[in-house]
Each structure stands twice: as C-alpha cells, then as structure tokens.
Design goal:
The structure is a homodimer of 318-residue chains.
Chain A: H1 2-9, H2 13-24, H3 28-37, E1 45-50, H4 57-70, E2 75-81, E3 107-113, H5 120-135, E4 139-144, H6 149-156, E5 160-165, H7 172-177, H8 180-183, E6 186-189, H9 197-214, E7 226-228, H10 237-253, H11 256-281, H12 284-294, H13 300-312
Family (chains A, B): Belongs to the SIMIBI class G3E GTPase family. ArgK/MeaB subfamily.
InterPro entries (chains A, B): AAA+_ATPase (IPR003593), GTPase/Isobutyryl-CoA_mutase (IPR052040), GTPase_ArgK (IPR005129), P-loop_NTPase (IPR027417)
GO molecular function, one term (chains A, B): GTPase activity
Chain lengths: 318, 318
C-alpha cells in the first residue's frame, strides 16, 4: 500500500490508476491511501463540464486539454457517465477520440460509470479528484453526461463549473434553468457555426440577466461570461481557458477556493458515512427484514424501523 | 392524521396532495400514513417515461393521459425534475401545458423536484406512487427529465418503462445505450413527422436487435415494441396504451407484476434507512467532526470513522 501511496505522490500513472480503482471498488486500502495522500491535496483546480446530451462536451474537453497543455499545465480528466455500467477506470469506447492525448504524460484520463447506488458515483468522482490532485495535476476536468441529480452533485464538487449549450436544442435552456444554472460560472455555446446560434445566444443572455436579477448564482462575486466555441475546429479554447484562470483568481481573492475544497470534504464525509452505516445494517437478520419488505408483508417505513432497532440492539456490530 | 389517511383511501385529492407533501418533507406523519394505506396498495401499474431532453416526454405523457381517460381509467402523473428546486407537489410552470386535465377528477398531477440529497428524489417519488396507488389511480405515470442516475433509479421503480426518442438528436441513441436500454419495455420515436425519422428508426431497430442478442433486457420474457408517435397531434397514443396493457398482462402471467412491486419496497426500505442513519450521526458532536473535515484538517475517511465511533458510544441516541 505504501508503495501505491508513494507512487501517487510521485505522480506515477500506474499507481494513480490503481488508487482510483481501489477507491471505486471500496477496497479498504483506498481509505488508508487517502489518509496518506490527503496532506498533498488542495492545490488542483477542479473544473466541471456539463450540459445536455449532444452539446459536444467531450470534444470541448478535448479542446481544453490541448489548450491547457500548450500552457504547460498538467491536466487530469474524469469522464462521469451515470448511464454506463463500466466502472473502475476503464477508458470507454467513446473516449477513443481523446486518444491523441493518450501518450502525453501530462494528461491522465479516467472514466467512471454507475455505482448502482444513489450518490456512489459522486463519491467515487471526488476520490478520483483527490488522487489526481495528489499526483500533481494542475487542473482536473470532470466531464458529465446528461442533466440529472448526479450531474448536479458533480458540479457542486467543482471549483469552477462550465455549462455547455448548443444551438437548436429547444429544451436546452430549460434543462439548464435550475440546479445547474445556479452553479454555472462559465457558459459556452458550442457548435456556434450552426444555424440558430444567435437565437440561442439571446436565450442565454436573457437567462444570465434573469439570474443576476434573482441573485441566485452560487458565486455571487463573479460575473459569468458567455463564450462561443466550435470545439471541432479548436475555436474558443483560449477564451475558455482564460476564463477558468480568471475564476480561480477571483475565488482566491476571497478565500473562496479553499472554502469550496472544504465543502467537498464535508459532503464526502457524509457520503462515506452513509455507505458504511448501510453496510452495517444489513447482516443476516437485516436481510430477513428486507425480504419481508420485498414480499410486501410490511411497508418500507416499518421495515426501516425494524432495521434500525436491530442496529441498536447490537453494539458489537462492526 | 387518520383523516388524511382515510381521505387518501377515499381518493380525496386534497388528502393525497397533503400526504405527498408530508412524505416529501419527511414529516413523521408521513410514515404513519404509509403504514395505514399500505394494505390498499399494489394494484396500480407504475409506468416510467424517460428519454433525452427535447424528446417531447411531457407532450407524450399528456397524450397518454387523454388516451387512458378515454378508456375510463383513472391516471396519476408524477413529473420528476431533478434539476428543479421546486418540491413538494407544486405544479411547475412547464406543467401548464397539462392544464387541460386540471379540472378532470380522474387525473392527478404532481411535480417533484430535487431533494438536494443523493437518492432523496427517488424515495419521494416512490412514496408519491404509493399514495396515488392507494387513492385508486389505475395507472401512475412517472415522467422524468434528463438521463442521469436519478432517471435510472426512477425507471427501476416502474412496472413498465417507456423510452422516448426523437429524430435528429445525434447522441440520443448513445445516451440511451446503457442503463436505460436494459430497462426499456416500450420504445417510442416521437416527432416522427420530422426529417430523419427513418434513420433514427433504423438506429433503434439495430439497438433492439443488439439488445436481444446480448440478452440484457430487464424483462427477458417480453419483446419490446418500437412505436412511432407525433404527440402534438395525438398520433400513436392508442398503440402506446395498448402496449402498456400488453406488458402488464405479460408481467402478470409470470408473477412479474408483484415481483417488481416488491423490489420497489426493498429499495425504498434501504433509502429510508439510509436517511435515518445519517440523521442520527449528526448531533452536535457530529457537526464538530464535519467542521473539521470542511476545514480540511482531517480527511473524509478519518472523519467518517470518527462519526461512526460516536454513534457506537451512544446507545441512547435517537
């Protein structure tokens, strides 16, 4: 284990991959490893990239990696796909388009899929961010699929959140409107060479105006820019990278960078606690109660009450 | 409380609305109410409607409600929007298009928004399904936004899942491919009068063919139909309703209907237990540990371990 933790601290890719797998698998060695590497974390800027399917988030992430590498920064990418059954660090099929970074030692790409359990994915994602942070990556991009609760959990983990839109997707602004709208610190309209760009731009401008009036932005001290991009041709990468650094500087000027890191650790603590408590409640007797609920012989509130009572009767339950 | 439970059993709309709010707010009266109404549940068919943003799920749900009402069935609709901060039964702005059912006593529509907590939304959704079931609605449609983990949780709660696609959305089939693909029992291509319908239809046919070869469908005994719809003009409603009943009959022929209901109660039991355990762990001492984690003075695994130790030392903690 010490070798793996040391490897992570030394930035060894194989060690990082192993550490992420341990943590995603809930291997007990993962917890020990986090204790070892934690003092070396808190430096990387976590950047969330989210938006509706079809907005070109992967291509935009790819463009950003290229831009950040040209500035000599080391970049980690965590691709979060709640609809994918693949987990534990395998690079998904649709990641092949990022293959051009695969041989670059300054880039580390991992995919995380569903944990089959509410909240499990955002816990794994945060663990992976800590590992990449300890490995010395300057920026860790967390890219999501879709617009569900998992995505909101993920962007809430980021220092800086990029919302990617695209012209011509009718419900798109609507999909962004709540939850994610509050979190967005950089808005990008990708595929800006498409028909309908100006109409979409006006919708976003209106939305940002309404957001300002309603004063609901997560980061009240920051004026969120609306940028245009054509990620397939590399257009817009520079401006987005500049905005990422500008937001970091703005956060640091108000101690907001460390505060966001701290909120993540708080949420992570609760997520770990939740998983451990539930694991305890489900010994052999617990399984019998669950079977009663599954047979619909007792309602779920009564069943949960019985499980709680079982825990209370057993102090030595580990 | 007894009045509210009796009101639910009598199908009184105001009682149902109150019950759903109690449960969504985690009011203790909600748990007592579920105990009272539980014996009257297990009859309604829960139908999940999901698919990417822009597929027209709301309009399709509206069409289905009209079709089911024409068959003299009572219909409940729960609109689940994880990106919305509105919760507790308020009808969202975008629900106004369902206004034409608002005065029909055979239709009950509620919206549920984010709980701000992993898994909380699917727990509230299941509670609301139980209430509508006890009120005597024959079909409860659970309509989701987006394609995240929450949506997968929701469709896993349904007896029958409808996946709605739309021509011309490039990543759409991809977004459906895992997680949701396994769950789909009825596939509908909406907006079928649009350009690109035939290409999308071929993609879905191929996907369904691959799914059959891989034998990954959740309901292996059912051959999922691929239907076309133009929900804005009412086209396709009859065929979808027929497929819903055909799937119910197929499930019942193999005891699958009760089995799916039971799996829901099992998941719900775990969700309730998870929420109660975490609430216990967070007394005043617990908050101090969380503050340590938030200040990044201890790592989240160490913090979670301390919280567990606190629980173990306190038998009288309620």
């Amino acid at each position: 284990m010490n070798d793996i933790a040391q490897g992570v601290l030394d930035g060894v890719v194989a060690a990082g991959a192993r550490a992420i797998r341990w943590l995603d698998d809930r291997d007990p060695r993962g917890a020990d490893l986090v204790r070892r590497i934690f003092p070396a974390t808190g430096r990387a800027q976590i950047v969330g990239v989210t938006g509706p399917p079809g907005a070109g988030k992967s291509t935009l992430t790819d463009m950003l990696v290229t831009e950040l590498r040209s500035r000599d920064l080391r970049v980690g990418v965590i691709a979060v796909d709640p609809s994918s059954p693949f987990t534990g660090g395998a690079i998904l099929g649709d990641r092949v388009r990022m293959a051009r970074h695969a041989l670059d030692p300054g880039v580390f790409i991992r995919s995380l899929g569903t944990r089959g359990q509410a909240g499990g994915l955002s816990r794994s994602t945060h663990d992976a961010c800590l590992v990449l942070d300890a490995m010395g990556y300057d920026i860790v991009i967390v890219e999501t699929v879709g617009v569900g609760q998992d995505e909101i959990d993920v962007v809430n983990l980021a220092h800086t959140t990029i919302i990617v839109g695209v012209p011509g997707l009718g419900d798109e602004v609507q999909a962004v409107k709540a939850g994610l709208m509050e979190a967005g610190e950089i808005f990008v309209i990708n595929k800006a060479d498409r028909d309908g760009y100006q109409a979409t731009q006006r919708q976003y401008e209106l939305m940002l105006h309404l957001r300002e009036q309603a004063a609901v932005a997560r980061d009240a001290g920051w004026s969120a820019p609306l940028l245009r991009a054509v990620a397939t041709s590399g257009e817009g990468g520079k401006a987005i990278a500049d905005a990422i650094f500008a937001h970091r500087a703005a956060l640091e000027a108000r101690d907001g960078f460390a505060r966001r890191s701290g909120l993540r650790e708080r949420e992570q603590t609760l997520a770990i606690l939740r998983e451990r408590l539930i694991a305890r409640a489900l010994g052999a007797q617990g399984q019998a109660v669950l079977a009663e609920a599954e047979a619909r012989r007792i309602d779920p509130y009564t069943a949960a009450g019985k499980l709680l009572a079982q825990i209370d009767g057993k102090d030595d339950l580990a």
